Amino acid sequence: MFLQQKGRRPNYDVYACFQPFNEAVKALYPFLKKLQQEVKKGDVILNMWDRSGWLTTLLSGLFPEQHIITTWEGNKDILGYKGFSFWMKENKNVTILFCDLNARCPLKKSV
Description:
The protein is of the alpha/beta class. The protein is 34% helix and 15% strand. A three-stranded parallel beta sheet has the order 1-2-3, with helices on one face. Strand 2 (67-73), helix 6 and strand 3 (94-99) form a beta-alpha-beta unit. The termini are far apart.
């Protein structure tokens, strides 16, 4: 219901606006040094369902030698417009996948 209403009347999503303070980011910080030591150059980091671009930018800066793949829901409003790709083009280690919330994730299974 929330997504249907948002599609009809785009507005700022409070959760996305405060992305730097949400539980996912809080959970990352205690493990950051260990991750930076263990993740190797060229590894891929999958950032599922970024809502503001903030986490993608953070990961790109924290892991400049890794490739960040970020999923982004739709192309409907301020949180999903394809213009986001324009702003992220400076981050050479970022790929953005636009996804349909009601469809399968567009990644093939890796062996």
